[in-house]
Amino acid sequence: QILILDFGSQYTQLIARRVRELNVYCEIHPFNKVPDLHPGIKGVILSGSPCSVRDKNAPDVNMDLFKQVPVLGVCYGAQLIAHQSGGQVLPSHAREYGRAKLTTVDHHNNLLKEISLDTQVWMSHADTIAAVPSNFEVIASTPSVAIAAYKVKDQNVWGIQFHPEVTHTVEGKNLLRNFVVHICGCAQDWTPDQFVESTVEGLKKKLGNDKVVMALSGGVDSTVAATLIHKAIGKNLHCIFVDNGLLRKNEFMQVLDSYKDMGLNIKGVDAKDKFYTALKGLTDPEAKRKAIGKTFIDVFDEESHKISDVKWLGQGTIYPDVIESVSVNGPSVTIKSHHNVGGLPDKMKLKVVEPLNTLFKDEVRVVGKTLGIDPAILGRHPFPGPGLGIRILGDITADKVSILQEVDHIFISGLRQHGLYDKVWQAGAILTPLQAVGVMGDERTYERVVSLRAVTSTDGMTADWAHLPYEFLAEISSDIINKVKGVNRVVYDISSKPPATIEWE
Ligand code: XMP
How many A from CA of 453 to the centre of ligand 1? Predict the structure, then answer.
């Protein structure tokens, strides 16, 4: 495997994804928490950073730790190595940002084997390496960056100023392949089949005859995690699917049926009333999230106590949830407290088993495909844990839920019928507390305003509003107003994230 040390760059996770696309396993660790370099670690990549090596408290690492393995410094990582060895890192005259061409390339160097002259690379840096010590050899440059890549002559250490992990660096993946495969000698054997095989074997050993309880949500992560655990321990996996009264129209029965078809040992629990009672009168989004989270824990706790001798709690946690984020610009603020099943392990005193905690979302989908899970489940849009509870602005009642379910149903099935569902990352409807005047037949109406929301995104961190065809929006709007009692106006949300968020609450 490859160890990636994170110095706080926005691109660190991309490095990991590119390495994994080469079928090589890698892990990201914070620069100040370097794990023991066991023999399985074949190489180290130092990430970029928003900091300057000239800053007083610049993130730093002891390079002596990596004497035994090849090291590749990317951007800040390259500057750090040069700086530590007595090179000179200075502010660039102009911030070097964007596309550039490698106008000299040393093809004898293993890192740059078969990288084309004039290939496009992506620069994003405010500092530049102005001079390197005499035991450094410059192996590539661009017209404005003389030291675009270097090799330390007597060591297995390389530095590159550009970012091979972004797609704008056209041959970036080849360069990373040169490093991880040819220089570090990693076997490219980390494949979905191999992941399934070794994970199931590992789960069998870890769980033995123990029972595991797990909450399923109908989403991709919990479904794939449950399928892996089920493959390992069969009926000893007890799944629970809670109807919190905030699901989509017909979702509870449909999802329950598909879990049964998959052979999972699943129990559906109708807890709608408990949730509505807990939510009564609450209008603040965070208060609603907390009430939903707490009620969920109570319901799940009660249900799991009905199963004797449970030792483990299964969870669908994925890698981005466990990567320890490096904060080099002060602590980050909580924008929304996302409720998944946080708090459960503490309360239930169970050991936690999380078979997907080393995978990125797209890798979970690939593993799901390998496991033969229904593509309709794998292709589902993300849906927030608190469900329609954060799409009904203000307080929640059963009546409002059923209005929103109808609106959402028309929108989502319309997207499917028009072949648009897979083109957007997430879609849904929001029931606003606004009432507007309208006219239906000869009558004046005074009813609700709903907003439709659809976004394109790759990870939900940033998103653009989806440019859905006007004709489609027109059809959906008239369908909603004609069919859903209580709604007389439909608007479409054209805000991107940032500065807006995907959900309205
Ligand atoms: P925002 O609104 O923060 O949403 O742009 C980003 C993604 O997260 C989902 N989301 C949630 N998921 N619990 C969840 O499990 C929550 O409380 C929650 N709030 C937002 C949202 O649907 C989108 O996919």
Answer: 13
Catalytic residue among 26, 51, 125, 163: 163
φ/ψ of 310, rounded to 5, equals -75, 135
Residue nearest to atom 14 of ligand 1 (CA): 384
Q: What is the pLDDT of residues 176-216, one digit of tens each?
A: 999 999 999 999 999 999 999 999 999 999 999 999 999 99
pLDDT at 228: 98
The response to whether 220 counts as a known ligand-binding position is: yes
Give residue for tokens 């655990």: 229
What is the average per-residue pLDDT within 123-134?
92
Instruction: Please tell me if the CB atom of residue 238 comes closer than 6 angstroms to any atom of ligand 1.
Output: no
Instruction: Give the position, in ligand 1's atom list, of the atom nearest the Cα of 463.
Output: 5
Residue 217 among known ligand-binding residues: yes
Q: Nearest 5°: CA angle at 447, between 442 and 450?
A: 125
- Regarding the beta carbon of 428 and ligand 1, being less than 6 Å apart is answered no
Is 384's C-beta closer than 6 angstroms to any atom of ligand 1? yes
Name, in order, each residue with C-beta under 8 angstroms of 485's C-beta and a sequence gap of 6 or more: 403
What's residue 206's pLDDT? 98
Question: Which residue's CA lies nearest to atom 9 of ligand 1?
Answer: 384
- CATH number for the domain whose boundaries are 2-183: 3.40.50.880
Residue 342 pLDDT more than 80?
no
What residue owns the CA closest to ligand 1's atom 4? 502
Given a contact cutoff of 8 angstroms between Cβ atoms, the answer to whether 179 and 43 are in contact is yes
What pLDDT shows up at residue 339? Answer: 42
Please check the confidence at residue 330 and state whether its pLDDT lies above 70: no
Domains 2-183 and 192-378 share a fold: yes
Ranges assigned E (strand) in 102-148: 104-105, 120-131, 136-141
Active site residue 165: yes
How does residue 331 score in pLDDT terms, banded at 50, 70 and 90? very low
Any ligand 1 atom below 6 A from CB of 217: no
> Can you give the residue ranges of every domain in the chain?
2-183, 192-378, 391-492
Catalytic site includes residue 381: no
- Name the active-site residue from 26, 51, 96, 165: 165
CATH topology assigned to domain 192-378: Rossmann fold (3.40.50)
Residue recorded with tokens 């479409």: 492
Measured distance CA(440)–CA(74) in Å, rounded: 63
- Residues in CB range of 181: below 8 A, 6 or more apart: 22, 24, 188
What CATH number was assigned to the domain covering residues 391-492? Answer: 3.30.300.10
ipTM over 0.90: yes
Q: Note the pTM of the prediction, 2 decimals.
A: 0.88
